[in-house]
Amino acid sequence: MSALRQRVTQLVRQTRLARPSGAGGARTYASSHGHHEAPHAVEESLGNGFYITLGTLVGSVFVYQISRPGENGELSTFHKWAQKLEDYGNEWERRNDLMAAALEQAARDKHLLYNAERSKHVELTYPEVFAHGSPFNVPAGHYPKLDKVVAHYQKQYEEEEVRKAKKLATAASSQ
């Protein structure tokens, strides 16, 4: 019988919890002192929908204005912008073509210079070019004899001086 009692008390407890408490029904948390405060004012924003609608309206008016042709058959602002973009693209295309042509010409010139016949003759302007290097720790007889080279350049110098003197004399006599 004790099992039956336990079951009945459990059902009674469940029904008490399910019923609203108090004599008047649902419990309220309002003050019963008789004075009521006004509800707080809640300031709400206009919301995202309003701003999206407003932006769409302004944007459509703007697009309409720039797509209209101007007075006296002028092109629309939108068409002018499109032409500027096209001209900008054409300018870059022209620059790229010029750059490619310049690079191709430079490559041709490089191959021409690398494959051209070179002169084997080297004009020495001073005889010391053969004696470059450290003058210390050089064994005797390891410097070449430069007497013939020095004589050659002295003769060339003298011929050049004679030619300059004749040229100056001719210029002086013609004045």
Q: In words, what does this structure look like?
A:
The protein has 175 residues and is mainly alpha-helical. 59% of the residues lie in helices and 0% in strands. The termini are far apart. Residues 16-36 are annotated as: Disordered.
Quaternary organisation of the protein chains: single chain
Shape, per Cα inertia axes: elongated
Class from helix and strand fractions: mainly alpha
Low-confidence stretches: none
Number of helices: 4
Radius of gyration: 54 Å
- How far apart are the termini? 157 Å
How many distinct beta strands? 0
Helical content, roughly?
55-70%
Q: How would you sum up the major sheet?
A: none
Global mean pLDDT: 81
State the order of secondary-structure elements, H for helix, E for strand.
HHHH
- Percent strand equals under 5%
Describe the secondary-structure layout.
Elements: H1 2-18, H2 48-67, H3 77-115, H4 147-174
Short description:
With 175 residues, the protein is mostly helical. The protein has helices spanning 2-18, 48-67, 77-115, 147-174.
List keywords for this structure.
mainly alpha
